[in-house]
Design a protein that fits this description.
alpha+beta; Ribosomal Protein L30, Chain: A; 2 domains; 3-stranded antiparallel β-sheet; 6 helices; 3 strands; globular
């Protein structure tokens, strides 16, 4: 069986966002990889064991009140309604990268007040 990348690209173009999200998760599980941006790893590798000065705010769950979480994500990121909904539905998702400790804690409080579950990395 020949590898037909053009056919795969056409199928991806026609897929819905949820199908693509499922595809990414399946690829992550199958190959043991992560689709997360490697920016955080590069920042951590340069550290010398000192206290962390930048954090990634990761939305781990939208919670039961997803509408409130979507509104909070829109306010934080400036994303449109569809993009914010995709972030909440696709959790875990990094909402903000490279935030200071103070900013990260503020964003965490804001998202948790909306009913979301948040992790600082």
């Amino acid at each position: 069986m020949a590898f037909d990348k053009d056919n795969i690209i056409e199928q991806i173009k026609d897929a819905s966002i949820t199908d693509l999200n499922d595809l990414v998760k399946a690829i992550e599980d199958e190959f043991g990889v992560s689709a997360a941006a490697p920016v955080a790893a590069a920042g951590a590798a340069g550290g010398d064991g000192a206290a962390k000065d930048s954090f990634d705010v990761e939305l781990t769950s939208g919670g039961s009140a997803k509408i409130k979480a979507i509104k909070a994500v829109r306010e934080i990121t400036g994303a449109g309604l569809k993009e914010a909904k995709d972030m909440v539905d696709g959790a875990p998702t990094v909402i903000k990268e490279g935030a200071s400790e103070e900013e990260a804690n503020k964003l965490k409080e804001q998202l948790e007040a909306a009913g979301a579950t948040v992790t600082l990395k």
